[in-house]
Design brief:
Component of ribonuclease P, a ribonucleoprotein complex that generates mature tRNA molecules by cleaving their 5'-ends. Also a component of the MRP ribonuclease complex, which cleaves pre-rRNA sequences. It is found in: Cytoplasmic granule; Nucleus, Nucleolus. One of its GO terms (molecular function) is nucleic acid binding. Helix content is about 30%, strand content about 30%. It has 4 helices and 5 strands. Strand 2 (about 50-55), helix 3 (about 60-70) and strand 3 form a beta-alpha-beta unit. The longest helix has 17 residues, at about 5-20. The radius of gyration is 23 Å and the shape is elongated. Mean pLDDT is about 75; it is low at about 10-30.
Length: about 160
């Protein structure tokens, strides 16, 4: 059984952890007085060569879209992935590189994106609040190393 000095130390450590948490996201997320509404992340401008990968989109459909862009003369495409979709974005870029037998190369950049959640009150006493959190993102530039025209990808 822990003595009272150990209990005081644990309480002090927990207080320091809570005090150092800038946005108190741990406390806000566990609050029963609010409903969390996640906002969409800010995205880059949508161009023809941008592919935004999600966990919900079919991998084969994303691969076909990339192949179509490359076969229509695009010299590069940029694949964007956020959070759990980073793995799918990497797999998509590596599959494209493998399918094109060394005529494509990849350039990878990672970053952190700030996401904002709205905390809507469920009772009249609570106020609207914002919760900010960070999430990892990846941007993969897939470009041609040899300009040989459009390649056709057959399934």
């Amino acid at each position: 059984m822990a003595d009272s000095s150990d209990e005081k130390t644990i309480i002090e450590i927990n207080k320091i952890i809570v005090d150092n948490n800038d946005d108190n996201s741990a406390m806000k997320l566990n609050c029963p007085d609010h409903i969390i509404r996640k906002r969409l992340p800010l995205s880059f401008p949508k161009r023809n060569k941008d592919i935004y990968v999600t966990k919900k989109t079919n991998f084969q459909a994303q691969l076909n879209k990339c192949e179509k862009l490359l076969s229509n003369g695009e010299s590069e495409i940029i694949i964007h992935g956020l959070g759990a979709a980073i793995n799918n974005a990497c797999n998509l870029a590596l599959t494209l590189k493998k399918n094109h037998n060394g005529t494509l190369d990849i350039d990878v950049n990672t970053s952190t994106v700030k996401l904002i959640d709205d905390l809507e009150p469920t009772t009249d006493d609570a106020d609207y609040e914002l919760n900010t959190r960070n999430n990892s993102s990846i941007h993969i530039r897939v470009f041609r190393t040899i300009n040989i025209g459009g390649l056709k990808y057959e399934q």
